[in-house]
Amino acid sequence: MCLAVPGQILTIQGDDPLFLSGRVSFGGIIKQVNLSCVAEAKPGDYVLVHVGMALSIVDEKEAQEIFGYLKEMGDLEELTAPSSDASPPVDEVR
Q1: Distances (CA, A) of 34 to 42, 48, 91
Q2: For residue 2, what are the contacts with CB-CB under 8 A and spacing of at least 6?
Q3: What own/partner pairs with CB < 8 Å and gap ≥ 24 does 21-29 have?
Q4: pTM (predicted TM-score)
Q5: Which residues of the chain have pLDDT under 50?
Q6: Burial 8-20 (b: 16+ CB within 10 A, else e)
Q7: Tell me, what's the pLDDT at 80?
Q8: Residue 83 has what pLDDT?
Q9: Which domains can be identified in the chain, with CATH numbers?
Q10: Which of 24, 33, 64, 84 has the smallest C-beta neighbourhood within 10 Å, fewest atoms?
């Protein structure tokens, strides 16, 4: 099943709206995400992310609720499973 996962934008890189990207935290796991579909987003905003692309901005309450449902369903393993291109845990990111 393909689901969009909520995450919080930590930083944004780029000036061109077509090539915006940012570091997004998914419950402490940091991933690089394409932000071109949510060019108006800013650090601190929550976004729904599907296959590395932020699709929409959501409020914090909705993001936490969705994240909780996904956690209950066990659909967050891909964020915690180590992979060769995975970002280091948040406490290792500098």
Answers
A1: 13, 11, 22
A2: 50, 51
A3: 22/54, 23/87, 23/93, 24/49, 24/54, 25/90, 26/67, 26/76, 26/79, 27/67, 27/71, 27/76, 27/79, 28/89, 28/90, 29/79, 29/80, 29/86, 29/87, 29/89, 29/90
A4: 0.76
A5: 83-94
A6: bbeebeeeeeeeb
A7: 61
A8: 47
A9: 5-75 (2.30.30.140)
A10: 84
